[in-house]
Amino acid sequence: MIRTVESQPPMSAPVLAAYSYCETVTGQQARNFAYGIRLLPTPKRRAMSALYAFSRRVDDIGDGPLANDVKVTRLEDTRALLTRIRDGAVDEDDTDPVAVALAHAAEHFPIPLGGLDELIDGVQMDVRGETYETWDDLKVYCRCVAGAIGRLSLGVFGAEPGPRGERASEYADTLGLALQLTNILRDVREDAEGGRTYLPADDLAKFGCSAGFAGPTPPQGPTSRAWCTSRYAGPAPSSPRATGCSRCSTGAAAPVSPPWPASTAASWTGSSATPRRCCAAGSPCPAARRPMSRCAACPAWTPGM
């Protein structure tokens, strides 16, 4: 395969300076991301830096110390700037380098700038402290703050022709949803301590978590764990014979061959070298894949027992 180098017509000094500013912002604020996009052809790297710099501005408004009414005003000002960029009303000598760079990138790549409108919508949801009644409500928020970034990036990266490429936007949304849900689950305690809850109210009520999440301390024990299991692992099989394991359909524990060398298992402290499955029927316990003193999904079950 012959590798081609993408190029663009020579740029004016103001546009080059604008891109340089955006690349500096990216390098200072998102070092890992900056290292990753260094592998892109120069035009794509510059365009991604412009997208990052604009998105970072939106995020900084939402996360900053300003009063909420001031944040809302700043976000609407940013949306008005985005409208100018979309309408081609930003000149090369504009005093805002991020606007100049993004306007140039949008002229040369099919960037769906509506994704930045969605990002602003999502940050406004945070500023207003919105909560989400249903799973579908939460997905809208995740699509705005994460899925939109994937779709914007596709405008620069491009997609392969054919059926898979036609679904690239859908894949980007799905990946963004997964990443944002990971962030939400990771920060449940921190958000709850700050009086913020992202998890859907109907799901929390279903598993008895609503009262706990209304206070400064998130709920402990099987209620919050049950929510995660039902939402991400699907419904667990139930049986009157199950003992000590919500995933077990027989109540029996069957040993399985360790997927790691015996020498490695021997070096573990406080862990069993003989992991087990939850039941003879073969439903795998998460502990069968890694050394643990007990299974995270089944707190009453201990490997090796």
UniProtKB/TrEMBL annotation:
Q: Which domain of life is it from?
A: Bacteria
GO annotations under biological process? carotenoid biosynthetic process
Q: Does the keyword Cytoplasm apply?
A: no
Query: What SUPFAM superfamilies does the database record attribute to this sequence?
Result: Terpenoid synthases
Q: In which pathway does it act?
A: Carotenoid biosynthesis; phytoene biosynthesis
**InterPro entries associated with the record:** Isoprenoid_synthase_dom_sf, Squ/phyt_synthse, Squalene/phytoene_synthase_CS, Trans_IPPS_bact-type, Trans_IPPS_HH
Report keywords, A-Z. Answer: Transferase
In the UniProt record, does the keyword Transferase occur?
Answer: yes
> GO terms for molecular function, please?
geranylgeranyl diphosphate synthase activity; squalene synthase [NAD(P)H] activity
UniProt protein name: Phytoene synthase
